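Can anyone check this?
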Amino acid sequence: AQLNNRLYRVKKFEDGRISFIHHMNSMEDKVLTKYLVANDFPSAGASKFDSSRPSPKLRLSKAAFNFAIEDKHFEVLPDGQIIWLF
């Protein structure tokens, strides 16, 4: 369950930052922005990852990058098992 909170997909690149959306999030951008504001997250997305309170949207600068990349650092099997490649 803890790993599930840490899985994000790349949404877009902008202004030297990368926006990530939580892998289970399916909200449209306008709905997501309203949700973020209503739950005390920055409207553009959190600028750092907080494992105790994961944001549905992250907007990270290069200085905040600290992650593993699928097919480079790990693989996900069809049954959901994660195989680390290092």
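Reply from J.R.: I decoded it. The mean pLDDT is 92.
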